[in-house]
Design a protein that fits this description.
Blueprint (H helix, E strand, L loop, with lengths): L2 H8 L3 E11 L9 E7 L22 E3 H9 L5 E5 L9 H9 L3 E6 L11 E4 L9 H6 L2 E6 L3 H10 L7 E6 L4 H14 L3 E3 L3 H4 L4
Parallel strand pairs: 2-4, 4-5, 5-6, 6-7, 7-8, 8-9
Antiparallel strand pairs: 1-2, 1-3
Helix pairs in contact: 2-3
Length: about 210
């Protein structure tokens, strides 16, 4: 990275872009809504069940002018952008959000909440991972808490995180995809007994869309 690139990177005007695409939101509260997805490279959580492991190494993904990403997003009919990863909060997202807001585009963040929050967000989906606990500010700010369930012990983990969230935060349990047929019945029973929780499914995989 050149000195000039480093300055632009620190300002959030260059971001390690893995991919960006227009699709339908597949998970959580906003399932079924169209949005432009911006997937940033770089993540040090190492979740073994992650379905985008190719996003982990930021150096594999080219530093891209943020203005070009914004330009592509603004051309889409739905004025909504989801920023995901990897782990997007590794980067300064102030410039990205400010420019999107100027264009009347709503901003949605999907994060494990491991670094200080930047950017202006209309919706924050916090998905905590056991490898590194979220910062307190995310529990105070998150609109939804989405916990991935791989085994029965994960229900306890979900409740520990729910206990830190603010009262208006929506709560979701989502089966880990590789075991979804086995774990989903357990989630169904759990939600029936604990109705403060909702079920999130990776519906984009059933629809065969990105």
């Amino acid at each position: 990275m050149t000195e000039e690139q480093k300055i632009l990177f620190d300002q959030g005007k260059l971001l390690p872009l893995m991919e960006d695409f227009y699709t339908i939101q597949g998970e959580g509260h906003n399932t079924g809504k169209p949005a432009y997805f911006i997937r940033l490279g770089g993540c040090d959580m190492g979740c073994w069940w992650c379905d985008v492991k190719e996003s982990w190494d930021a150096s594999l993904h080219p530093l891209t002018e943020t203005s070009l990403i914004i330009e592509r997003a603004a051309k889409q009919p739905a004025k909504a952008v989801v920023v995901t990863g990897g782990e997007p909060v590794l980067y300064n997202l102030d410039y990205l959000c400010n420019e999107l807001k100027e264009k009347g585009i709503k901003t949605y963040l999907e994060t494990a909440g491991v670094k200080e929050l930047t950017g202006q967000w209309d919706w924050i989906c916090l998905s905590p991972k056991k490898g590194s606990l979220p910062l307190l500010e995310y529990f105070n700010r998150a609109d939804e808490l989405k916990v991935i369930i791989h085994n029965e012990g994960d229900f306890r983990w979900a409740e520990l995180n729910a206990g830190k969230a603010h009262p208006n935060c929506l709560l979701f349990l989502q089966p880990e995809w590789s075991v979804h047929t086995q774990i989903l019945p357990l989630i169904v029973n759990y939600v029936k007994e604990n109705p403060e929780w909702n079920i999130s499914l990776q519906t984009h995989k059933f629809m065969n869309i990105p």
